[in-house]
């Protein structure tokens, strides 16, 4: 470095040449020093993971035993119906058990202090040999509520977990809002009424939100108060088990929305100040508080916190037979800044450095390692907005071991386009770039919209497209207005383009498949505790003359077509036409040819498209069919034959008839 500086000063006194020489040096510095640093970071992370895994195996016997700690903590029933209670409360001076079993006497049942901050209590069986606490008894504690399952009936699951899907089509769902009625729906309601719809729509996976117990309904389940309890507002544990078992009988995989990024700050019914300190499960002081969410942040360097969280994963897999997890707010876990006020540009310096929470990163590696070793078919999905490299690479490669990451930029792009850009000004290159801009070798789940876009303060795609006309002009008994016509056609095209071009998995939030009107808003003081918007109006699909039924049909056949041809499991698409003037996108994926015309006015006759494989082509899915709310302007059984005419980098091509006609001719006057 010094010799280079001397060389610059002596041989290149002018500033321009000095800058040029330093640029060359900078490139040398980057390749010689920074790139190896990436490998060092990878090796460092894997080394920390391996050390942590070896430590827990040495101290606990095996990671299998360590992650089954829920069987030794909480309440455990002996063969004579005596109860052993064990909790971890390192900051406590004394611990007592209280509940309706002892008339809520606060100090009648003290725990005995053990080593490492653990406390134990033994309750003898009653005179009639029954447990001292009945199954409907009320008590509290991090592991205690979970362990009440020992008192509940344990129904046998009748159906095995289905094979892991090669093409993952996820139906994101919330049990409480799954009814058209203005109430909190139940697990049984969801099992009876919603699972058959999911199956009919061709989704092979349901992702359940807000299952982990949470006191505040409007938190969407993201302010967890009890990690070892299924939300009681939806029914009993047996009801949830029946839901999962029924889904498995339909061949539907079930994922749980897992919140290990933070916890509710509640003290009466949550983990906060459980042992009288602010640092039992969490970081002490300001580091343990999320400044935007008002929640507590776990201390992933703590041995017992890792035990608690890994045991929590095992419990949901073992007790409820979930097939995997969608890990929420991974970005908040990965960085000390939690993503607050941070814009990620993709520069590697954003992902490696002291701002990364290596303890949280190692915890996620442990979680993925254990889940995939013990349950080889398990699916893990990361919600990360930062684009952390290696998130979905194997742990042996220095990655974090997730199976999929969510491509969260895509729904933001669609909302931005609909809000800010006229149809004729859509930048197709930018849209395609957003859909295809993902890390190679790391599988992505793409979606046009999720629950985030449905929440109050935002709008679903359907509402952005059709707004108030959805209340008055969705009847198929009357002619479509220009607004409804445009909205229905673009709703289908946006979803199909996202589905086919955007990733290796696809996600849809419940109800959005048929263009659910309005927004989502939970009961709160600001809306007079109303349930009017905390529901999904599936009844709209059942009314034959409403056009919601047409959007539902297209979504179903889109999924069924993917199920037949498997484009999600294929490699990334090859885009052969991206014509900004014509507003046409053409690409190949999984031996299928996709042709999109987004022009608001023009249709095209004898439009040439390039293909890789010679032969005969037939239409397999046509958004303009009448049953999908289209205009029926294409002959469905038309056959197209290739000719050896090179075009757009392909040796074969053919001419297609009109790909689309005006969506709204009034826009082109």
UniProtKB/TrEMBL annotation:
The chain crosses the membrane at residues 20-41. The keyword Transmembrane applies. The keyword Membrane applies. Residues 190-539 form the Glycosyl hydrolase family 13 catalytic domain. GO terms for cellular component: cytoplasm. It catalyses: Transfers a segment of a (1->4)-alpha-D-glucan chain to a primary hydroxy group in a similar glucan chain. Belongs to the glycosyl hydrolase 13 family. GlgB subfamily. This is 1,4-alpha-glucan branching enzyme. It comes from Cyprinus carpio.
């Amino acid at each position: 470095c010094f010799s280079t500086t001397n060389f610059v000063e002596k041989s290149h006194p002018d500033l321009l040449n000095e800058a040029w020489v330093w640029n060359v040096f900078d490139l040398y510095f980057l390749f010689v020093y920074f790139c190896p640093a990436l490998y060092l970071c990878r090796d460092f992370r894997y080394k920390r993971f391996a050390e942590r895994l070896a430590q827990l195996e040495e101290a606990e016997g095996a990671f299998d035993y360590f992650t089954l700690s829920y069987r030794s903590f909480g309440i455990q029933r002996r063969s004579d119906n005596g109860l052993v209670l064990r909790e971890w409360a390192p900051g406590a001076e004394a611990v007592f058990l209280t509940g309706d079993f002892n008339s809520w006497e606060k100090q009648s049942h003290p725990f005995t202090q053990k080593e490492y901050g653990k406390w134990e209590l033994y309750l003898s069986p009653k005179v009639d040999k029954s447990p001292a606490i009945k199954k409907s008894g009320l008590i509290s504690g991090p592991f205690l509520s979970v362990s009440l399952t020992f008192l509940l009936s344990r129904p046998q699951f009748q159906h095995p977990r289905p094979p892991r899907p090669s093409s993952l089509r996820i139906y994101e769902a919330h049990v409480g809002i799954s009814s058209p009625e203005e109430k909190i729906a139940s697990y049984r309601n969801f099992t009876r009424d919603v699972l058959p719809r999911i199956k009919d729509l061709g989704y092979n996976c349901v992702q359940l939100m807000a299952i982990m117990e949470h006191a505040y309904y409007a938190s969407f389940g993201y302010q967890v108060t009890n990690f070892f309890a299924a939300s009681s507002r939806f029914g009993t544990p047996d009801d949830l088990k029946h839901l999962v078992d029924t889904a498995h009988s339909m061949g539907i995989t079930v994922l749980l929305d897992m919140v290990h990024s933070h916890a509710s700050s509640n003290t009466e019914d949550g983990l906060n100040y459980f042992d009288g300190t602010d640092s039992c499960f969490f970081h002490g002081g300001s580091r343990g508080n999320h400044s935007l969410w008002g929640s507590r942040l776990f201390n992933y360097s703590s041995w017992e916190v890792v035990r608690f969280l890994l045991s929590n994963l095992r419990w949901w897999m073992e007790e409820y037979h979930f097939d995997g997890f969608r890990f929420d707010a991974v970005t908040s876990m990965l960085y000390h800044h939690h993503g607050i006020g941070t814009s990620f540009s993709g520069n590697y310096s954003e992902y490696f450095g002291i701002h990364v929470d290596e303890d949280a990163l190692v915890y996620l590696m442990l979680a993925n390692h254990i889940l995939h070793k013990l349950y080889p078919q398990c699916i893990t999905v990361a919600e990360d907005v930062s684009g952390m490299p290696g998130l979905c690479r194997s742990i042996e490669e220095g990655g974090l071991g997730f199976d999929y990451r969510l491509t969260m930029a895509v729904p933001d792009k669609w909302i931005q386009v609909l809000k800010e850009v006229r149809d004729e000004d859509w930048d197709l290159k930018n849209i395609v770039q957003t859909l295809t801009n993902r890390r190679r070798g790391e599988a992505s789940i793409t979606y046009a919209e999720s629950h985030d876009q449905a929440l109050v303060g935002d709008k679903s795609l359907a509402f952005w497209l059709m707004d108030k006309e959805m209340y008055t002009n969705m009847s198929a008994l009357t002619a479509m207005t220009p607004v409804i016509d445009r909205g229905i056609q673009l709703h289908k095209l946006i979803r199909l383009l996202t589905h086919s071009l955007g990733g290796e998995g696809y996600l849809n939030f419940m109800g959005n498949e048929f263009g659910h009107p309005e927004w989502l808003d939970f009961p709160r003081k600001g809306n007079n505790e109303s349930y009017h918007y905390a529901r999904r109006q599936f009844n709209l699909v059942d009314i034959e003359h409403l056009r919601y039924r047409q959007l539902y049909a297209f979504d179903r056949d889109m999924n069924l077509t993917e199920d037949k041809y498997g484009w999600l499991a294929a490699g990334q698409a090859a885009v052969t036409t991206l014509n900004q003037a014509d507003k046409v996108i053409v690409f190949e994926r999984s031996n299928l040819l996709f042709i999109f015309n987004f022009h608001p006015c023009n249709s095209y006759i004898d439009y040439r498209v390039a293909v890789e494989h010679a032969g005969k082509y037939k239409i397999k899915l046509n958004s303009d069919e009448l049953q999908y709310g289209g205009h029926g302007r294409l002959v469905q059984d038309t056959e197209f034959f290739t000719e050896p005419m090179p075009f757009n980098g392909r040796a074969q091509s053919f001419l297609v008839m009109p790909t689309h006609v005006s969506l709204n001719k009034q826009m082109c006057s």
